[in-house]
């Protein structure tokens, strides 16, 4: 499977409409890949809190329309990053995942909202469902940015059948070491691929970490971006997940979590 992570530069001088069209063009250029991944909240910027309400869109809004068309034209599975979704009076940080026909097959509302007592944590409502995507040969578990700090979410995705995790993010530069460390940790402890796609540029005065990263089930870094806009393209072997879990069957020794039934 060939995966392309598009590390988008978010420049507040570029309009949301212009960036949406530019990103759709970048997606179309990935024809030949199987999976394309975009970052978190790239239309508006993950830290542009003051713009969330104004730029919020319904689920099937302009970003949905542009990304559905781009996925179909490129014939790729597309994790289109996330948008500020408006449903009634509530805002959500919602990821959109499209099939190669342009069908919206999954949405994921971010469960762990960042900001403690401000920002996203108070402006957005939380999701409450784990989401997997039935990509052939490599079922995906979906998480977003701050979710990366909560290992129990990823273990739940493993129990739901995920062989790889897709993590779009708007991760700040000042905590970049945590970003790469946690991406590798989630891969090692779950023996799964991690495809973590961040942003470049500056969101509302917050420099972004960049450094999108792809990690294999043994924890080896297959590719890592720099700090500027960049596209990582990596070939993944789905069989490597099963091989790693057979060669080093650590998941079999779990004490907590789902267990096989005991014999009477």
Automatic annotation (TrEMBL):
<dbReference type="InterPro" id="IPR036526">
    <property type="entry name" value="C-N_Hydrolase_sf"/>
</dbReference>
<dbReference type="InterPro" id="IPR001110">
    <property type="entry name" value="UPF0012_CS"/>
</dbReference>
<dbReference type="GO" id="GO:0016787">
    <property type="term" value="F:hydrolase activity"/>
</dbReference>
<protein>
    <submittedName>
        <fullName>Carbon-nitrogen family hydrolase</fullName>
    </submittedName>
</protein>
<feature type="domain" description="CN hydrolase">
    <location>
        <begin position="1"/>
        <end position="238"/>
    </location>
</feature>
<dbReference type="Pfam" id="PF00795">
    <property type="entry name" value="CN_hydrolase"/>
</dbReference>
<comment type="similarity">
    <text>Belongs to the carbon-nitrogen hydrolase superfamily. NIT1/NIT2 family.</text>
</comment>
<keyword id="KW-0378">Hydrolase</keyword>
<dbReference type="InterPro" id="IPR003010">
    <property type="entry name" value="C-N_Hydrolase"/>
</dbReference>
């Amino acid at each position: 499977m060939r995966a392309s992570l598009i590390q988008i530069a978010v420049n507040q001088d570029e309009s949301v409409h212009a960036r949406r069209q530019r990103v759709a063009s970048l997606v179309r250029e990935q024809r030949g890949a199987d999976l394309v991944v975009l970052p978190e909240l790239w239309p508006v910027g993950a830290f542009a809190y003051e713009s969330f309400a104004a730029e919020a869109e319904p689920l099937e809004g302009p970003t949905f329309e542009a990304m559905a068309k781009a996925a179909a034209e490129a014939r790729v599975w597309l994790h289109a990053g996330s948008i500020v979704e408006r449903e009634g009076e509530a805002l959500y940080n919602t990821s959109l995942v499209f099939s190669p026909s342009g069908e919206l097959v999954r949405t994921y509302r971010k469960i762990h909202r960042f900001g403690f007592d401000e920002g996203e944590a108070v402006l957005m409502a939380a999701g409450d469902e784990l989401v997997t995507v039935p990509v052939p040969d490599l079922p995906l578990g979906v998480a977003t940015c701050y979710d990366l700090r909560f290992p129990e979410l990823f273990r739940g995705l493993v129990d739901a059948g995920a062989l790889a995790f897709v993590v779009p993010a708007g991760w700040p530069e000042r905590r970049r070491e945590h970003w790469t460390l946690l991406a590798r940790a989630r891969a090692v402890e779950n023996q799964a691929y991690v495809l973590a796609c961040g942003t470049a540029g500056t969101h509302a005065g917050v420099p972004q970490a960049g450094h999108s990263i792809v990690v294999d089930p043994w924890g080896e870094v297959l590719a890592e971006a720099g700090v500027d806009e960049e596209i990582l393209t990596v070939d993944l072997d789905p069989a490597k997940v099963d091989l790693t879990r057979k060669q080093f069957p650590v998941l079999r020794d779990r004490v907590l979590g789902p267990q096989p039934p005991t014999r009477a």
